[in-house]
Each structure stands twice: as structure tokens, then as C-alpha cells.
Design a protein that fits this description.
Length: 285
């Protein structure tokens, strides 16, 4: 009996210990899987973000090349326009001298050339102003694109630095998962086996206790004296429980009354130590 109780207690303690270890391992496995999911998700997010940034950087680079080419083209056109303007200004000066100092018959043609030259000079100056405005606009756009390119390159560098840490984190969580999964399965199996052993021990203990109670009851029946057939015949039939209780109460009350009367008579017969009895009176001095 004592061995069964000790065995049951041992199985209970073992089951509690195994359950504690199993819960701890399951919590570690859940944390490892959560870390693995976060690492994998972070790597996937980094890859998607990297692709987006690379597309944006490529687009910015194309625009930069385009704007720079346009700026170079405008610079060449400005140079050509400046050379033509210089040439037309020289022609204008020579034509003006012809008008001022040339013969009279050539003045009309010289004035006609002068008007044509002045129109060309005004056109060249207008085109130069437009090209200067376009060049300034391109310079601002190129500056903005260079800033955007610098920002994109910085983000790509940050992602490149963050990727190795996530990769290492993912590898560590995968290694931990490979160790924890078999451990959790083993602990679950041990817990099931311990539970079955505990149930078996509790069942045996319960059977032993029931057997012990039955044996004790049988011994108490054997010790009780047997009544003879004659005593059984003389025994009156019991009344109902309620009437029997009332009879007992009445008998107890009568017994208490008789006991009180006896005590009272005894006090009258046997006075207290003071020497005074209940019936006697104190002497007068």
C-alpha cells in the first residue's frame, strides 16, 4: 500500500516535471518559429524593396543621362548662336559703315541688308534667351535627380548592410528549429507515457484502497456478536425514526428531572462546608 502511494506520488512529480519541460520547449519553439518567420519576411521585404529601388535608380539614371545630353546639346547650340551673333554683329557694323560712308547708289541695298541683319540678330538673341531658360530648367532638374539618386543609393547600401544580419538570423532560427522539434516530440511522448503509468498506478491504488475497505468491513462484521433466534424473536419492532427520536427525547427529559431531584435531596441531607444547611436558620447573637 505504501509502495503504491509512493509510486503514484513519484509518477505525479515526474509528470509535472515533464509537463514543465515540454511547455518550456514549446515556448522556445514558438519563439524560434516566430523569429524565423520575421527573418524570412524581412528578407522578402528587403528583396522587394531592393527591386523597387533599383528600378527607381535606373529610371533616375536614364533621366539624368537624358537631361545631361539635352544640356550639352543646348550648350553647343548656345555656342553656335554666340558665334553667329558675333558674325552678324560684325556684318552689321560693316553694313552701317557702308550706309554712312558708301556711295549713294549702294545705300538702298545696304539699308535692306541692315534690316535683314537686325532681324537675324533679334532672332538669335531670342533663341539664346530660350536656350538659357531651358538650360537653367535642366540644371535644376539634374540637381533634383542627383539628390534622388544619392538617396536611392543610400537606401540600397542600408539594405545591403541589413541583409547579412537577417540571413544569419534566419540560419540560426532554422538550426534551433531542427534541434527543438525532435525535443518537443520526445517530451510529448514521455509525458504521454508518464500519464499512462500514473493512471495505471492510480487505478491500482484505488483498487487496493477498495479492497482494504472491503476487508475492514468484513472484519467488523465478524467481530459483531450474533444474536440468538430467541433474542431476535423477543426484540420489539422498531417504530419509525421520527417517533423513536421523540421517545428518546422524552426519556432523556425525565431522566434529567430525576437527576436534578436527587441532587437537590443530597444537598439538603449533606450541607456545604460552611456548616449551614438549607433548612436551618442562622443563630441570633
Amino acid at each position: 500500500m505504501a509502495s503504491l502511494e509512493a509510486l503514484t506520488k513519484s509518477y505525479r512529480e515526474r509528470k509535472a516535471e515533464v509537463s514543465k519541460m515540454r511547455k518550456k520547449s514549446e515556448n522556445s519553439l514558438r519563439e524560434t518559429l516566430s523569429l524565423k518567420r520575421r527573418s524570412s519576411s524581412g528578407l522578402a521585404s528587403l528583396q522587394r524593396r531592393k527591386e523597387v529601388l533599383e528600378r527607381e535608380a535606373s529610371h533616375v539614371a536614364q533621366l539624368l543621362n537624358q537631361y545631361r545630353s539635352q544640356k550639352e546639346s543646348i550648350a553647343r547650340l548656345k555656342t553656335d548662336a554666340e558665334e553667329r551673333l558675333k558674325h552678324d554683329l560684325d556684318v552689321q557694323d560693316s553694313t552701317k559703315q557702308q550706309i554712312d560712308f558708301g556711295p549713294v547708289e549702294e545705300k538702298a541695298s545696304a539699308q535692306e541688308r541692315m534690316r535683314s541683319i537686325e532681324e537675324k540678330i533679334s532672332e538669335i538673341r531670342a533663341s539664346m534667351k530660350e536656350r538659357e531658360a531651358a538650360e537653367g530648367r535642366l540644371e535644376r532638374q539634374i540637381a533634383d535627380l542627383e539628390k534622388e539618386k544619392t538617396r536611392l543609393d543610400s537606401q540600397l547600401k542600408k539594405q545591403a548592410h541589413a541583409r547579412p544580419g537577417l540571413v544569419e538570423q534566419l540560419k540560426t532560427s532554422e538550426r534551433a528549429e531542427l534541434l527543438l522539434r525532435p525535443k518537443v516530440r520526445s517530451l510529448i511522448k514521455r509525458e504521454e507515457q508518464t500519464t499512462k503509468a500514473l493512471q495505471s498506478a492510480e487505478k491500482k491504488l484505488a483498487e487496493s484502497l477498495a479492497k482494504r475497505r472491503r476487508a475492514k468491513k468484513a472484519r467488523s462484521h465478524r467481530r459483531r456478536p450474533k444474536r440468538s433466534a430467541k433474542t431476535k424473536a423477543r426484540r420489539p419492532v422498531r417504530a419509525s425514526r421520527k417517533s423513536g427520536t421523540r421517545k428518546k427525547a422524552k426519556a432523556g427529559a425525565r431522566k434529567n428531572v430525576r437527576k436534578a431531584a436527587r441532587k437537590k435531596a443530597a444537598r439538603r441531607i449533606h450541607p456545604r462546608r460552611t456548616g449551614k444547611s438549607r433548612g436551618s436558620r442562622p443563630r441570633r447573637k
